[in-house]
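Attaching the record inline, Q. Sequence:
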Amino acid sequence: MKSEDTPFEGGPMDGRVLPVLVGMTGHPPKTYRIPVPDPDGGPPTVLVYRREPRDTRGGLRFARWKYTYDPSGRKGSGRRWPWSKPDRPAAADPDATPPGKPDDADG
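Structure, as predicted:
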């Protein structure tokens, strides 16, 4: 597989350059997770870095990437489909009684 030297910014890996495997499209993964073992034998801490463009220069160059530290470490939401609504409320209980009187047509 092919790899690309990719710089890391922020967090404990700030200033380091690591070879990162690239996919068939030539892009490295969108997130890069680095497990750091706990010295006391506890669960490892996972450092999360997000891929961003390295420079904004135009032209017909291949895109170069860098990884920026994400201190929240939350997982991405995955694919975002146009019909998905992130602020959609949870589905109501289908067995719940609707408000109002049972014979009231206006609710």
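The radius of gyration is 23 Å. Residues 2-70 form one domain.

More tomorrow.
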